[in-house]
Design a protein that fits this description.
single chain, alpha/beta, TIM Barrel, Sulfite Reductase Hemoprotein, domain 1, eight-stranded parallel barrel, 12 helices, about 40% helix
Length: about 350
């Protein structure tokens, strides 16, 4: 793995981004921000899953005002997502947004941008410059063509142009995102930008799709970039419950040996020797461990004969047979259980192990 790219560091609330800070996992609510109760409820679920920064859409002034009530009930930093209307950016910061996501060139001119920057300085709020391949400036598309993996120049120049607008106003508390719905275009754009500035980068593949397509596309792009030392925070964008984004995010970091959070699930794909409902057991165990923070290896195996040996590195595991199952630790069997009680006994043992490890 390449050494991490050196960047300046900014603060989003109490979460450091860039420099030597841990790579932060974030998400975005899909509730109506004006509905404070439902938005807070979703953020609470995200917090529990490990979300470290949350972004909310701000389509109007009522949503901007709602930020104050939302912030009073959550404990992770909140970013306001603004499109076009500079007044919403200012109102969001006045109501407690700890960062804003804007495209500086789309706010109606330098005078309006200057008002946003003045508010950001007053409230000590960083700005994320967000560039999407589908909404680039017409002159850049005319100059370079639509961005591709071979030629992402339009995206990179758009980002640098918008950052320059902030720098002209003596503002440098900035992070940048370059998002495309194409994985390799995303990779190329971030690679090129990484060599042209030292701002922290927010990674993501936009409009990636549902659970399967979105996970694969995001993991390919972000996995390549993170392995190359590029990226300081990211979101896995899925057309799903945003809690799924956090689960995928931490699994991606775990697979790259960058960060560990909670148990790692090891489970076999099953074969003709499996005589229990392994899919059901594995799914329930996976759901059960999502809110745990202790870094354990947990195995769910379908074969009593081979399971414990194949998952010998697991701290605790379960393997099933016909009408009976076994629990094992580090590859050694230590308890035989009736199939009907297998899941409940296993979860109890897992809970006790977590408690012992603190």
């Amino acid at each position: 793995m390449t050494a991490r790219r050196k960047t300046k560091q900014i603060m989003v609330g109490d979460v450091a981004i860039g420099g030597d800070a841990p790579i932060a996992v974030q998400s975005m609510t899909n509730t109506d921000t004006r509905n404070v109760e439902s938005t807070v409820a979703q953020i609470e679920r995200l917090q529990k899953s490990g979300c470290e920064i949350i972004r909310v859409a701000v389509p109007d002034i009522d949503a901007a005002i709602a930020i104050r009530k939302i912030r009073d009930q959550i404990y992770i930093p909140l970013i306001a997502d603004i499109h076009f209307d500079y007044r919403l950016a200012i109102a969001s910061m006045e109501n407690g947004a700890q960062a804003i996501r804007i495209n500086p060139g789309n706010l109606g001119g330098k005078e309006k941008l200057a008002k946003v920057v003045a508010a950001a300085k007053q409230h000590r709020v960083p700005i994320r410059v967000g560039v999407n391949s589908g909404s680039l400036e017409k002159d850049l598309v005319k100059k370079y063509g639509h961005p591709t993996a071979e030629k992402p120049d339009a995206m990179v120049e758009s980002a640098l142009r918008n950052v320059a607008l902030l720098e002209d106003l003596d503002f440098y508390e900035t992070k940048i995102s370059l998002k495309s719905s194409d994985s390799m275009t995303t990779v190329s754009a971030y690679r090129e930008l990484a060599g042209k500035c030292d701002y922290p980068l927010h990674l993501g593949v936009t409009e990636a799709g549902g659970l399967i397509a979105g996970t694969v596309k995001s993991s390919v792009a972000l996995g390549i970039l993170l392995y190359e030392g590029i990226g300081d925070t990211f979101r896995i964008s899925l057309t799903r419950d945003p809690v799924e984004e956090i689960r995928v995010g931490y699994e991606l970091l775990r697979s790259l040996n960058i960060r560990q959070r909670g148990p790692e699930l090891i489970s076999c794909p099953t074969c003709g020797r499996c005589e229990i409902n392994l899919f059901g057991i594995a799914e329930k165990v996976e759901q059960y461990i999502q809110d745990m923070e202790t870094p354990l290896k947990v195995a769910v195996m379908g074969c009593v004969v081979n399971g414990p040996g194949e998952a010998r590195e697991a701290d605790i595991g379960v393997a099933g047979g016909k009408g009976v199952g076994i629990l094992f630790k580090k590859g050694k069997m230590y308890k035989k259980v009736d199939e009907k009680e297998l899941l409940s006994v296993f979860l109890k043992e897992l809970e006790e192990m977590v408690e012992k490890k603190g």
